[in-house]
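As a warm-up, study this chain.
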Amino acid sequence: MLADYARNLDDQTRRALATRWRAAGWTGALESFAGRPAREGLVMATLASALARTCKGRVLLMEAAALFGLPTGAWTPDEIDAAQPRF
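Now compare it with the structure written out below.
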């Protein structure tokens, strides 16, 4: 999964992240099946960043990453916060 979606990271960083992910034993997900009302993206970005910051993790943008102003990848909360979203 990280090979497909964490393309912004080098191999060594992906391996280290995979090791930590397996050791944690859980994954959180934030999805929306809504119709993209105004400002939904801003709420999603804020929640994703806060969740990742709380568990010292990363935000894995898999779909519609361009809406966040970033390509598909595994991003730190600071990178999400600094992105230029297209909402």
